[in-house]
Design brief:
By secondary structure, the protein is α/β, with parallel strands linked by helices. The protein has two domains: 201 residues, TIM Barrel (Alpha-Beta Barrel); 63 residues, no CATH class. Helix content is 40%, strand content 14%. The strands form two sheets. An eight-stranded parallel beta sheet has the order 1-9-8-6-5-4-3-2. A hairpin with a 6-residue loop joins strand 10 and strand 11. Helix 3 packs parallel to helix 4 and helix 11 packs antiparallel against helix 12. It is globular. The termini are far apart.
Length: 329
């Protein structure tokens, strides 16, 4: 595979990035993806500062390849996380859920590349103005927290590509090499996959959640809690409670009370498939097996290469104009 700006920016072999998912992406998954030639990411959003320190330490011991940390900017102990990342000289940080101006320059002064996750071309332009090194444009299909605009990935990518000049990573509804090729045709230079890497051996998600993901069919996920922070959930008993509350006009405070504390941990990490918050993307319906992360990376590359070859062999039949009048032409 030829190098592009993302591969060179991160010093990786393949433009495949594993998303930093809460409760699912610890050091084992990040190291496995990085060792396979992609970019693994530790999801810091669900970690106390001392836990993040432990995961970074173990990841550094498990791989000599670049890896990253995903950092939600609204995290309450953000300064402690920043200090931990700088202390360990983590080469790359993916920021989300906040203003990229706040920490980008500070991280870059310590030699850290900064990538920001956006859900619209407007936010992409703001991220570029803040000086980030690249953006992840994440479409409506994605799992977890999502943009309120409900812009699908294949609409979002060309709009963001037109709006900014910095390197662009596509996310949301991508789990195969064919999807990766399609995103790159539209202007992306890499893809970020979350759902595909949840269903891997190294994922820190509970086995019950991994198998729930495999059994998710079309229409089994839905965007919810727009009055708080939009999140895509598998339809279980907790989701039904949220849907009923929203139908009854629940206020943000009422939804927050229903959500409570530790709901995502209860579902994705502890395995309560009824009352837990089960965040996953629409592409889950395409998955059929739990595999080692390295096998996933290699399969994606193989699918990409086959799809690219097939596409290059496909030619449109030229439009026949002979015998048509000027008006018909």
């Amino acid at each position: 595979m030829q190098k592009n700006r993302i591969v060179e920016l991160f010093n990786i072999q393949y433009p495949i990035i594993q998303a930093g998912m809460i409760w699912c992406s610890g050091w084992e998954l990040a190291a496995a993806v990085s060792n396979a030639g992609g970019l693994g990411i530790i999801g810091a959003g669900s970690m106390y500062p001392h836990i993040l320190d432990e995961h970074i330490t173990k990841c550094k011991a498990a791989t000599n390849c670049p890896f990253a940390v995903n950092l939600p900017l609204l995290y309450p102990s953000i300064e402690e996380h920043i200090n931990t990342i700088i202390k360990h000289k983590v080469p790359i940080v993916f920021t989300s859920a906040g203003n990229p101006k706040t920490w980008t320059k500070h991280l870059q002064l310590h030699g850290i590349k900064v990538v920001h996750v956006v859900s619209s071309s407007v936010f992409a332009q703001k991220a570029e103005a803040a000086g980030v090194d690249a953006v992840v444009a994440e479409g409506f299909e994605a799992g977890g927290h999502n943009g309120r605009e409900e812009t699908t990935t294949f609409c979002l990518i060309p709009m963001v590509r037109k709006a900014v000049k910095i390197p662009l990573i596509a996310a949301g509804g991508i789990a195969t090499g064919q999807g990766m090729l399609a995103a790159m045709v539209l202007g992306a230079e890499a893809v970020q996959m979350g759902t595909r890497f949840v269903a891997t051996l190294e994922s820190s998600a509970h086995d019950s959640f991994k198998h729930k993901v495999l059994n998710t069919k079309e229409g089994d996920t839905m965007l919810a809690m727009k009055k708080l922070v939009s999140v895509r959930l598998i339809k279980n008993n907790f989701y039904q409670q949220v849907a009923q509350a929203e139908a009854n006009g629940a206020t943000p405070d009422q939804l927050m009370q229903l959500l409570g504390r530790g709901r995502a941990k209860k579902g994705m990490f502890e395995g309560d498939m009824d009352e837990g918050e089960l965040e996953i993307g629409q592409i889950a319906s395409l998955l059929d097996a739990i595999k080692p992360a390295a096998d996933v990376v290699h399969q994606i590359i193989e699918e990409f290469n086959v799809a690219k070859t097939n596409l290059s062999n496909y030619q449109l039949i030229p439009h026949v104009t002979q015998g048509l009048s000027k008006q018909d032409k």
